[in-house]
Amino acid sequence: MAIQIGTTPQAGFDEPIELLMDCHRRVEHFLDTLIRVAEKAPCPLPDEYRRALTTARHYFDQAAPRHTEDEEDSLFPRLRAMDDPEAKKVLARLKALEADHRTARVDHERVDQVTDRWLEGGTIDEDSRRELIEVLHRLRRLYTEHIRLEDEEVFPAAQRLLDEQQLQAIGDEMARRRDIDAERGP
Ligand SMILES: [Fe+2]
Ligand SMILES: [Fe+2]
After folding, report:
1. Residue 76 CA, ligand 1 centroid: distance in Å
2. Any idea which fold 16-177 has?
């Protein structure tokens, strides 16, 4: 199977909302990769599947948690601080989104346990594979609605409601989280 490492972000840290949307495309891509490996990889695990699995795991271990922090620590608090009727509508969504983040974390921990064993031993028993596929599809369903809500409701509202300075502050925090100079871009 073809292995595609995550695409380079289109947006820079001066466009933090676009950058958050780019992250969603990577979440979808790497989740699909995990599902493909879980459903199709023969036993013992061939090298190309091992590489795909390792790359996708690396994304969810390293990059995805920073995306959650971008939302929970940089974007959502600024929306919560807005005194605006449109913001109030969006605020009603944020609690559910944060609950999704916690639910996803539990399922990702299970995925980590099963795939760690798979990578270590090179084989996976049928029960574990079945459970892995089930957990991954549950995550796919969760992310589908979660990402739709963020891309179609929360992010466009943030784009309209937050001023240039607030957006710049979010971009700077995102850059710092990745230890990158915001001037240089991602
Ligand atoms: Fe989120
Ligand atoms: Fe998100």
Report:
1. 10
2. Four Helix Bundle (Hemerythrin (Met), subunit A) (1.20.120)
